Amino acid sequence: MNGAARAILASLRPGDRIFLPGSAGEVASLSAALVAGEGPPLAITATYVPGINASLAGRLPAHSSFANLFASGNRGSQADDAMRHLPYSYGGFCAYLAATEFEATIAHVAPPDGSGKASLGPAVEFTPIALRRSRRLIAVVNPNLPDIPGAERIDISDADLVVESDEPLGEYDVGAPSPRSDCIARNVADFVDDGAALQIGLGKVPDALLRKLTDRRGIRLWSGMLSDGARGLAEAGTLDPDFRHVSCVHVGTRSYYDWLAGREGLAVRACNHTHAATALSAVPGLIAINSALAVDLFGQANLETLDGRAISGVGGAADFARSASLAPDGISIIALPATSPDRAASRIVPRLDGPVSLPRHDVEIVVTEFGVADLRGATTVERAERLIGIAAPHHRQELETAWREIMQAL
């Protein structure tokens, strides 16, 4: 256990409610110390993101609890209360935090400037909201955390405890595009014109899409998370130079964090701004592009469970999809592979067997590697027909048969 984690845990009492930021804001040494049982049992609320932060569910000492915005992916963890999944969208989680009290909030910050202000850098997300409901602020000052001029800051003199930790940030590297993600991205790219405002998630399809947009101009980014692909757009001259590109988090490779340090033209804001309906309604031409684990023939999307196992959460997709679908010039797009990796299971399904993360009225376009289903202005029957048309060919007959049975009850 390093000195920073030791000092933090020594300052906490058994049963304290604490808030831990996720994504690039995670203090990995503290997570490791908690799992090792080095501190008292705590009631933790966190925003650890699957694929970026390892879940603490089921790994903490007795009498601790772990509540998170995303599910852990471990079967049965919610049944035995090892994982307290909070199934909110980002916007809903902002409201939850605003009504929740904490003994302490951990803030991962860059070294303070000459005026004593310390940047939250690439991971502002929910920290400012939790701080307003927290009795104590614990600041972890890390020289590896990039100081982004447009990121929100804290006054280091407001901290009840300041510790220093020279540890690497959690990285996210999506790797090279696959042929399938490249094909899906090509279909999505047709909807992105010069001057569009773009919300996009993380993963192979979003990364492949951004690679295909380098010939566009005047693109504005307003998203939850941004990664290395944003750098590619900036260096290609794709981004609107007069717009401050907005997100609540940046997460990526070490070279991306180095590029972010001192980078102008970026605003890293708390989620009660980035995901607020009032703010999003003022963004002209908003195109929300989100992934899903399954879409049914009504156009409903499941972003949270796969084969019955809870592996994620709705995240910010619900906030952006609703705003984009209601905007006169906006579009809400779901992009997903038509099948599981082995091609055996269709991801276009008759009915969802998991939660409805996005209702059908918030989904306008569905894209797979087999084409585009434009659901705008379509009837219930037309929506099903169009969705069957972008399913994998070897699954279409079974979908048609299932839809005829569903139709008997409509």
Structure report:
The protein has 410 residues and is α/β, with parallel strands linked by helices. The chain folds into 2 domains: 3-164, Glutaconate Coenzyme A-transferase, CATH 3.40.1080.10; 179-407, 3-Layer(aba) Sandwich (Glutaconate Coenzyme A-transferase), CATH 3.40.1080. 25% of the residues lie in helices and 21% in strands. It is built from 13 helices and 24 strands. It has helices spanning 3-10, 28-35, 90-98, 127-131, 179-189, 204-212, 228-235, 254-260, 271-274, 277-280, 317-326, 380-388, 396-407; strands at 17-20, 43-46, 65-68, 84-85, 102-109, 117-119, 134-141, 153-155, 161-164, 197-200, 220-221, 225-226, 245-247, 249-250, 266-268, 286-291, 294-296, 301-302, 305-306, 309-310, 331-335, 348-349, 365-368, 371-374. The strands form 7 sheets. The chain has a 7-stranded parallel beta sheet with strand order 4-3-2-1-5-7-9. Strands 11-10-16-21-23-24 form a 6-stranded mixed beta sheet, sandwiched between helices. The chain has a 3-stranded mixed beta sheet with strand order 18-17-22, covered by helices on one side. The mean pLDDT is 95.
The CATH superfamily name of the largest domain is Acetyl-CoA hydrolase/transferase C-terminal domain
Strand order of the largest sheet: 4-3-2-1-5-7-9
| Residues in β-strands, percent | 15-25%
Radius of gyration: 22 Å
Average of per-residue pLDDT values: 95
The total tally of domains equals 2
Shape label: globular
Question: pLDDT below 50 for ≥5 consecutive residues: which ranges?
Answer: none
Helix vs. strand class: alpha/beta
Q: Helix coverage percent of residues? A: 25-40%
